[in-house]
Amino acid sequence: MKYNLDSLKGKVCVITGGGGVIGTALAIGLGEVGAKVAILDFIKDSADKTADLVTKNTGSKAIGVFANVLDKESLIKAKEEINAAFGKIDVLINGAGGNAPTATTKDEFLKTDSEKDLLNGFFGLDLGGFQRVFDLNFMGTLLPTLVFAVDLLNRDGIILNISSMNSFRPLTKIPAYSAAKASVNNFTEWLSVHFAKAGVRVNAIAPGFFVTQQNQFLLYKEDTTELTERGHKIISNTPMGKFGEPEDLLGTMFYLLSDLSKFVTGVVIPVDGGFNAYSGV
Ligand code: NAD
Q: How far is CA 162 from CA 77, 97, 181, 182, 226, in A?
């Protein structure tokens, strides 16, 4: 068949944050189409576990590699390890990212009755927490690109950034995460233009809501399967009426990484059950 995923066979794909829930699903998907996968994570054990899963489930080659996306030296070492094991890198997926409770306001809307009210909103934001979340999502995309993208030049290389629905419409309570993901979209567009004549395409996926460790505390009441008020709000604002499964991202990933999208660069594709399209009315 003329339209297929053959262009991904044997390609060397690097996934940062690859030991996480979404990274693991993407890594297994890549293994299934015959790519060689380097799974990078700052929890080496998680990277190794994902690599084992890829090898056992798909028979494709995979390695777990330690790398902190905020530490250029560790990324340079990781690149040496990947190049020694698999050769030059063809695909970079910037998947490391996430929110944290320390960058989350307690209240959705600012109340002004007391000092405590102010601290439960914008005025109580922990600047250190804000900076860490902003850096993880933005600098954690920029730095791996700086280190790895040189391999991609003039060989049909591909960069895929993992953004979020927050980048289009900021959710309440999580300003650092929203702003950082918006900057990831902007960077995706900027870099797609900058690399357009150098044989590298740059795109992004904006996942809607998928239950993972980093957001579980916002979606479910502690140690229960009962949705929080926020969890209910999300489901009722998602026209398809459910959270996504990590595997739901695979089709869009395959499209953006394969020759099926060879004239596509600088786009951010929502995979969100209709959340972005729905006004709520
Ligand atoms: P996750 O927490 O399961 O995975 C994140 C992984 O990144 C973890 O394995 C963690 O160890 C690793 N990591 C964190 N900091 C790192 C660092 N400094 N260096 C290297 N690795 C680091 O989260 P996930 O849901 O799989 O998220 C993957 C991506 O998808 C993130 O960019 C996230 O923002 C994005 N996303 C997730 C959702 C969702 O609903 N889960 C929605 C939209 C976007």
A: 23, 8, 9, 11, 28
Separation CA 127–CA 242 (nearest Å):
33
Residue 245's pLDDT is what?
92
- Cβ of residue 215 lying under 6 Å from some atom of ligand 1: yes
Q: Evaluate: CB of 273 within 6 angstroms of ligand 1.
A: no
Tell whether ligand 1 has an atom less than 6 A from the beta carbon of residue 276: no
Q: Which fold has domain 6-103+135-208+246-263?
A: Rossmann fold (3.40.50)
The residue whose CB lies within 8 Å of the most ligand 1 atoms, and thus the one to mutate among 22, 42, 104, is: 22
Beta-carbon count within 10 A of 17 CB: 29
How far away, in angstroms, is 4 Cα from ligand 1 center? Answer: 29
Residue 24's alpha-carbon distances to 41, 56, 247, 277, in angstroms, are 11, 13, 10, 28
Residue ranges for the chain with pLDDT beneath 50: none
Q: What is the pLDDT of residues 171-215, one digit of tens each?
A: 999 999 999 999 999 999 999 999 999 999 999 999 999 987 767
Phi/psi at 55 (5° precision): -65, -45
Parts of the chain belonging to CATH 3.40.50.720: 6-103+135-208+246-263
